[in-house]
Fold each of these.
Amino acid sequence: DAGVTQSPTHLIKTRGQQVTLRCSPKSGHDTVSWYQQALGQGPQFIFQYYEEEERQRGNFPDRFSGHQFPNYSSELNVNALLLGDSALYLCASSRLSTGELFFGEGSRLTVL
Amino acid sequence: GNSVTQMEGPVTLSEEAFLTINCTYTATGYPSLFWYVQYPGEGLQLLLKATKADDKGSNKGFEATYRKETTSFHLEKGSVQVSDSAVYFCALGGGTSYDKVIFGPGTSLSVIP
């Protein structure tokens, strides 16, 4: 049983560019949450998707947007990248009935 | 809003020492509490959880008790091993599955032989 998979694992962008990160949830999971983890810090909640809708959102600007597809996979898009967007982006999936999060290994974004 | 505070690290212990990592929280309602662990080069994984007051979560020799009166969820282990070296995150979830999970800043643990 595959766990949560994320792609790409590493990427480098320049300021002002746009990036799309992808996540496939664990089999049987219907909810996807995205987190930003800066170096040496705890994960910060970006947003949560369920039934293809954004259900919860953290304190992130509108440059951060997402999508969930009918197969429950999800994308995180960040526009107009800033140096401060450099971080590890974590996807976590769960079953809405339990809420227990299962994490992928993350996508490390470097903005130059 | 909801928040989680953890003791600052890094923490360095000798093998077989006793471990305590303090965690306190601020929340409305009746949150669920979690400890997640991040081993070097790996993603976060759930270590243990407690969903109501006085519940004790336990796994791999680690324990934590949900104390509503002190709003705490301290992580303990009686005898640490080198393989326990990792970053430990205390986290708080809302009372429903819709609620976001909020993480503390993490505590880095190094266990030396």
Amino acid sequence: DAKTTQPPSMDCAEGRAANLPCNHSTISGNEYVYWYRQIHSQGPQYIIHGLKNNETNEMASLIITEDRKSSTLILPHATLRDTAVYYCIGREYGNKLVFGAGTILRVKS
Amino acid sequence: GAVVSQHPSRVICKSGTSVKIECRSLDFQATTMFWYRQFPKQSLMLMATSNEGSKATYEQGVEKDKFLINHASLTLSTLTVTSAHPEDSSFYICSAPNLRGFGTEAFFGQGTRLTVV
């Protein structure tokens, strides 16, 4: 599975968009980009995934660059409850999820 | 939606005893489940892949005799920490892939906080 690189931490003002970047320059053509988040002392929560097209669901949007070497998770209107560790993972269908260090997102009022 | 239930959520045990953690998929069948361990301020570390009807596959460096995994049915996997020691104190999390859709997501249990005293 592809190695991903994320900034260790980010701050975001409540109500503003949170844009979380992820580099995955070694991603292969069969690997999806997955985003999960983990709120303190809970199991990870699925957010969104994509292959090469941009994706949007009720939680977030995922923007994947044309060369697929990087992506950005967008939380359009961050709330205090979005404070969590966000993980970007490159993974082939059905494979195990391998977590990196992730980005600690702090949403501040 | 699909849910993975993990039990217990918190357990304290004495050093030298064994602890069993259960992971159930509630409304879907899971032929494969994954077990993770997470130490404070660290990321999740994959320990092993639990396979229904066959032996578990352990990641490098994980002692299979210490962390016994049994995938008894299509909805239940158990992790037993044998002869627990204080260094085994950690947050243990299970996961099951939802194979109903392409590009499947994985569902996670709520985790088990193990404290060995």
